[in-house]
């Protein structure tokens, strides 16, 4: 009788712990549903492959992948990474292969896939890089090769979080990596031209939600921490993440997400942006306010159909520009769905949102 009672108690505690954990990240870690014309997609980025298909990379086990001939009807593809990188499990305690926020682009004869290894609410994180000659899984040249770590952040040491990477190459062919989530905001670091992997400068903050720098001392002050379920959230109130830099005309456009992802019906993501004629910034919004001091022009946010819209990317294919993100749909109980819209610009070069 005592054994049965003890077993029941342990089972109840375990179920309660799992329930709390699932409430904290309902969209980050749950299995994505493959609805062919309305697929689940968290943190989507996209590329047009050699075979003419569009390949969408998302948060998922070892990086989720799906493809489409027309950006309307989608099919699931194998995960990008053959196995969970051992270096990442050694570097990031708690990471077990659920890989966040990838970035995809083509340079020097190879596709470069940057990806995030982390755990919810902590800035013990790392960004990795994998390369491939082709996106076409039917090609004999197809095969992702993991190159290992690009950059890592450490709890109580670094005042930034090494997730949500995006690569941008400037007019001189110099690669830059932007990344970041909460803490002191969005970072920019210069990478080596030789390998597109080795940082050669220290990170610099180019966008914050708050109008002031969040210091490491503030982040190390336990009075600034909050507790959600069984998670310690150390990020403070600087609710900004998911940078993406898109070059169009004379400007670099920096997209970021304000507020909160990953909460289903309680998600409040908003996409804001600014622009600069230099990749290093400063990025300013329509009102002339610098993004490193809290600026940002609203592009998409909660509306009649979505609880939030964010973690965006932007591309130009065949002379047309596209805005891509995920949206927490109201009629799907807050599921994160692929959100694609044409992107146009007004006479002054500011982006026009499309419903």
Give the overall shape, derived from the CA principal axes: globular
The number of helical elements comes to 3
How far apart are the first and last residues' alpha carbons, in Å?
62 Å
Major beta-sheet overview: 5 strands, antiparallel
Mean pLDDT comes to 87
Would you give an account of this structure?
With 355 residues, the protein is mainly beta. It is 10% helix and 39% strand. It has helices spanning 2-24, 86-91, 216-220, and strands at residues 45-48, 54-58, 60-61, 64-68, 74-77, 98-107, 110-117, 125-132, 145-153, 166-169, 175-179, 186-190, 204-207, 226-228, 231-233, 240-248, 251-258, 270-276, 297-300, 306-317, 320-329, 336-342, 344-345, 351-352. The strands form 7 sheets. The chain has a 5-stranded antiparallel beta sheet with strand order 3-6-7-8-9. The longest helix has 23 residues, at 2-24.
Provide a concise account of the structure shown.
The chain has 355 residues and is mainly β.
Give short descriptive properties of this protein.
mainly beta, four-stranded antiparallel beta sheet, globular, 355 residues, five-stranded antiparallel beta sheet, 10% helix, disordered N terminus
Architecture blueprint of SSEs:
Elements: H1 2-24, E1 45-48, E2 54-58, E3 60-61, E4 64-68, E5 74-77, H2 86-91, E6 98-107, E7 110-117, E8 125-132, E9 145-153, E10 166-169, E11 175-179, E12 186-190, E13 204-207, H3 216-220, E14 226-228, E15 231-233, E16 240-248, E17 251-258, E18 270-276, E19 297-300, E20 306-317, E21 320-329, E22 336-342, E23 344-345, E24 351-352
Antiparallel strand pairs: 1-2, 2-4, 3-6, 4-5, 6-7, 7-8, 8-9, 10-11, 11-12, 12-13, 14-15, 16-17, 17-18, 18-19, 20-21, 21-22, 23-24
